[in-house]
Specification:
The protein has three helices and five strands, in the order αβαβαβββ. By secondary structure, it is an alpha+beta fold. The protein is globular and about 35 Å long.
């Protein structure tokens, strides 16, 4: 299923192969729409490096928090080739402050950035 111009539903499936459950399709569409804004701004691909959606089993396996936004398909671990995770997080922050991307969680990790559309500010 095509979610946006550049993102398809399969990109957001759990790393164990589980598809995003139907109940969370609206969440993943909202996430993909925000990631599309980022992609268009950067004019380069945004790669989902970790899961978008995670099953509870997979979330526990990778050490995710119990109330992870990944469990409801509202989060993705991402990177882009031209930016370090810190630089990418800074771009997302800029787009949120400009009202172009939805406020949410931004976590900077070694090799990727977590972004979610929880609707409230969270940074780590």
């Amino acid at each position: 299923m095509q979610l946006t111009k550049n993102f398809i539903l399969d990109e957001f499936r759990c790393n164990d192969g589980t598809a995003v459950p139907e109940i969370y399709i609206s969440n993943v569409k909202e996430l993909a729409n925000n990631l599309q804004i980022l992609r268009d701004y950067l004019n380069e691909p945004v790669f989902i490096t970790g899961s978008g959606y995670r099953t509870p089993f997979w979330n526990a396996k990778v050490g995710g928090v119990k109330n992870s936004e990944h469990l409801v398909a509202k989060a993705a671990d991402i990177n882009v080739k031209s930016k370090t995770p810190k630089q990418l997080a800074s771009v997302i922050e800029k787009l949120i402050k400009a009202g172009k991307m939805k406020e949410g969680g931004i976590g900077v990790y070694n090799g990727f950035v977590h972004y979610d559309v929880r609707g409230t500010k969270a940074r780590w």
